[in-house]
Amino acid sequence: MRCRCRRANVRGVIADIPLPAVEAMRLGHAATYVLGEGRGFRDARLFIEQLAASLQRDGVAVDRLNIVLAAMHPQVAAISATWKSSEDVVVVPRAWVGLGSLEFKRSPMALFHARTHLVIRRLLCSAACAVDFDIVADLREQGYTDYLALQLGGQLTTRVNAVTVATKQAGGFSDDALHTLLSLQRILAIVVESHVDARVATTLLQTYLGEDAGARVLAGQVQRGQGEAIPAVISFCDLRNFTGLSDRLPREAVLSMLDDSFDAIVTGVAEHGGEVLKFIGDAVLTVFRARPGEEAAACAQALRASRAVLARIAEKNAGRGDHDDRPLLDVGMSLHVGDVHYGNIGSPSRLDFTVIGPAVNLASRLQGLCRPLQRRVVVSAEVARHLPDAVEDLGLHTLKGLLEPVHVYGVDC
Question: Same structural domain for residues 194 and 226?
Fold first, then answer.
């Protein structure tokens, strides 16, 4: 007997076909895989290949399988992985801008994001099948006969994951196949949501703290005072004339100026092994960690990064054109090397992962000399000692908060 499309309302959410009761769920090869080997999966490509193979062992005539995983990345909203019989899995990152596209609005994912639907089924081989999604016409043209989409996002999160299955079997999915697929919805939701939670935690920590600091926090370094003393090159990079420009420019222009500057700084630093620890207003604190006795290599690394930042600033300026609302960017940078405490400071319930110590203070004060000395990069004597051929002696200078004058050097960039 053919499975008829019956619409059920699950706690206010529409299901074209009702999910089976928990006690009636069919736990076959696919469920065993998801709860066993597939649990805690890291590779979406391998997961979907094995899931398709398991479904086929369960007698489900699956010819196309797609999974959409929320990403919560600054540039990527979701990852889509598509398996087709006799073809390699295709993984595609979906940008945030795509959520506003006509393609998205005419897809089942739009209804899943709106939280109006839990299960969507389109019997493609039926003349009465609604062609309300672009995917319906596309799959029909490719010879598919049935399409089932399952929302996998939890009701308590704004993230939405989904899996879709299609077949070319004559007449579409059998009743048994539909029951097997629908039985997987709750199991897949739990496992996929767990996978996405782990990925989101990693992504957000790396985005807001930096790759190394984020990894340390995720690994359990979350207690106040926890950290280590390390040698490092500390760099402060400050956007010049920001206060005056921000007073006269509209908010959008100020944000554009900051974003362009930070993009140049972060990219240049990352290219040469440094790590951005924090944005402080219009300034950026970065570190280049060194092993004891290898400070010279870290200084050379930091110098290369500084030159890369300035090159990228020049590239940004070429596109800005010095218009009234898009002023040219200019930055000043300082470099100092010394021992720092790298870890958690703050209150018991509100921590910051950063670097502290006299070396950080000196680097911060040193940056303030860029403008009066008309230099884009200034370095301390400790850094200059490791870069004798790249610096120019600018003499002794008194820095606020320091008792003794310090030798300052300029870098030809």
Answer: no
